Batch of 3 targets.
Target 1
Amino acid sequence: MDEKASAILRTGAPLPAEDAVWTVLQAEAEQARSGEAALAPLYDSILGAPTFESALIETLVARLGHNSIAAPTLRAKFRTAAEADPAIGAAGRADLKAVVERDPASGRLLEPFLFFKGFAAIQTHRFAHWMWANGRPDFARYLQSRSSEVFQTDIHPGAEFGRGLFLDHATGFVAGETVVIEDDVSILHGVTLGGTGNQKKDRHPKVRTGVLIGAGAIILGDIEIGAFSKIASGSFVTQSVPPRCTAVGVPARIIEGAGSTNPAQSMDQHLALGTYESFTYVI
């Protein structure tokens, strides 16, 4: 493996022109192929690809393939999007790094790239969002539907996602049309980012940089979840949360302090002792 590239990934330093993520991913695939021959076709989809984007497309086509849309058609659509918008590939690289940095169950880039449905769901959405924004709403809806079937998430193609997102486990994640998620956000399974009515206007949450959202949290309405804040697991949030605060409970109460400098990076879901006990819940 390229030690320089590997070191860059570990430290989180900016990627060089030679593309450290792609270099390390290929090295991991080569090493894995020699140890697990039965999965050679999966590794070959990386080793035989000229770029990160090409490998990502092949992986998604294999997972999303269905007899309703021929694989060459799906592949061509993805390639058009990736070539038109280099930000798709750049964001995919950042997302892949985020998984390895924040998930102790993942020691290699290869694992989320090939096997983790949270990563795959986010990448599928990136292509669907491009379709939505570029006059192909029906194909965007198809990708939303197909991703829901395969990855157990439901992400409207209109939702806007930043870079460095980590969707852990993925099952049950829902994001509505006017959702905005900024960079470096971590979200666990069963989270709903939804609306509170049937109005057509802006109606979904805006999640700012560095936020951690715990499993089963429900966040509704055109509200803001401030930067580096934390939403405790199982909370029901219908009011904006200031930056660097924690929302906890049903309905959620706001407490000061996120418990860590960057909760999305640390994945620290603890609450300060004593603070949590002072709240009375309304069920």
Target 2
Amino acid sequence: MKKRALISVSNKQNIETFAKGLIEHGYEIISTGGTLKAIQNAGIDAKAVEEITGFPEVLDGRVKTLHPFIHGGLLANREDVHHMEQLNEHAITPIDMVVVNLYPFKQTLEKEGVTEAEIVENIDIGGPTMLRAAAKNFAHVTVVVDPNDYDSILDNLQNASLDEAKRKQLAAKVFRHTANYDAMIANYFSEESFPEVLTTTYEKVQTLRYGENPHQSAAFYRDARSIAGGLATAKQLHGKELSYNNIQDANAALEIIADYDEPTAVAVKHMNPCGIGVGNTIETAFSRAYDADPISIFGGIVVCNREINLATAEQLSNIFLEIVIAPQFTEDALKQLTKKKNIRLLELDMANDRTSKQKITSVVGGILVQDYDTGKVGEADLQFATNRKPTAKELENLLFAWKAVKHVKSNAIVLAKDNQTIGVGAGQMNRVGAAKIAMEQAGEKTKGAVMASDAFFPMPDTVEAAAKFGITAIIQPGGSKRDQDSIDVCNEYGIAMVFTGMRHFKH
């Protein structure tokens, strides 16, 4: 008796070649709908499923393979005498291979102007059922879900090496595929922010050389949904593959720049901003980001939210950078930057709406899930706590610094002046320590600068240090039982202080 293969695919890539190969290896082909037409049009002998089931496709194709003649042939244990007797009793022929890929649910979901009726119609029922049945019975049935596996399967058949171990590998791939498919459907229907079961799914982008350190293995996965402005959607124009640490730092830079609408450049080192600059042009913005900390930017990552032109490229090429990311590069800028062999250049649409997206952090045995910190503060949200209110220029710099401090690891202090950061204190165990790091980095620039703190001052020591360095205005959440102590010190030194009523811890 010939072996039997059931082929029903939405993605018809190379299916005719594969079907011919199966015929050459003694398989009989049964198929459905458009797949059957494609195979027959290629001159390949194939039977319609309804010839096997004796029942036509109904409900506009919603029901065509859901039949005992199909699933009995897939699920029968060939080593179970009782199973085989039942097949004979009901004239069911075993099916030895299933080649199925599913309705394009994801692609339909991403179509512009798609209706819910179209989305629902692209939820496959028969396909996953056949795949799961065949994968469950991998000991006897070969199941193929990925066109990229066609050549290796034909090679295995040629070499008589399509053994149970190989079939088990293919079955595992099927269950990953159907889990991914079902997760996307579940996410589409789910309206809860934090459902009782969280179904997430990611697709592999690349295996990385190593993780944070050379002794750690790592890989990069992207969200199965298309996330605008996400690093996984970037187009790499030049340079070697990104490393684990590159990806971490680049993502941190993208999260920062998403908060800025005006021409902005962000320099990141070890997931903290070492310089943020805003200007009327991207050249000015980068110049300010560089001047913020010309030492730490060495070997860092720069993201600009405007096209990189030649003038900016010439500035960038004067220092060693790991990565430059921008929406576009002019031809002259690319020519200039690609003179440096090791720099990685990425082109990325900076549109980045995170209002409905969540941040996932792994812990041992679980994950933490929270909304992205999209909290923003404007002048109307501020509480003016001190006798002196900030000047218009101070207020502009305070709001600039507040945007920046949100992206610095806690405890965090940011100093700013003239639309640029001038000192950053990150990840310290106490707040006054973070402030001292920021002020020592800024040096003489602290005179007339402003300070932002990601959380309130539990005591006035940070304000006292700021006064000694010439800080003229401070922005902080407020809310400490000892707020008045800090207010009193500010009043003593003529420092303006404003409260935001919002904290920006980042761990």
Target 3
Amino acid sequence: MTASLPDPAGFPDCPVCAYVLTGTARLCSDCAGRTLQPIAAPHCPVCSQALAPGRQCSNRLCALPEVQRGFSRVDAVAVYSGALKDKIHKLKYEGKHGWAMIFGRLLVGWMDSHPEQMRGVDHVVGNPTHIGRQPIQHIEAIMNAAYTEDVTRAFPLSAPGAHRLIKTSETPRSANKNLEDKRAAAAAHAAALTWTRDTNDIKGATILLVDDVLTSGSQFQHVALRLRASGAADVRGLVLARVPWSG
């Protein structure tokens, strides 16, 4: 910032920041990067889980061939901890709409600062929530905000209300379930998804699938395999937060 302008307030003080309405995605992303817990180095190149030096990732998905895993890699803005964990919860379970705008900026800021990971992406789509989800369809709200914050239309995001991937029926939740139940819930979630555009739109495409958090990756796997079965050539992932996970 210049001496004549105030400094950003820093995450999670975004609601009282001088740039809460006028800030750019890159400004907010750079500002939040000073306080969010970064993805560890080294980390798994497939699921972004922190790795001890010289150790292999313990996530069973990462050892699978890509054709069985579905996705090629999942990147994360930061680790699911502290203020980021709290604010994702505020949006997801309390419907605090203001955080959707901030999260949209963080995603677009990440895309802007990672051109290698964005190269060749044909569609950026949210991993959808059920159309009747209460108190808010948080993924859709974040993706709508990301479209708005991408002022130069640098990325292939869908306009608000025109989401390419939707979920038309409710399925069991996976939170606080054992691994077997999580996998069953992930499979049911993927089966409930519909691609809303011409099916030729997906054939041979590289898709960036966006979600709020990643834990084991089971849901990403099932959705990615569904997209691959529909003709997608590559499915990559981007999440706001990587949940620390030991397998």
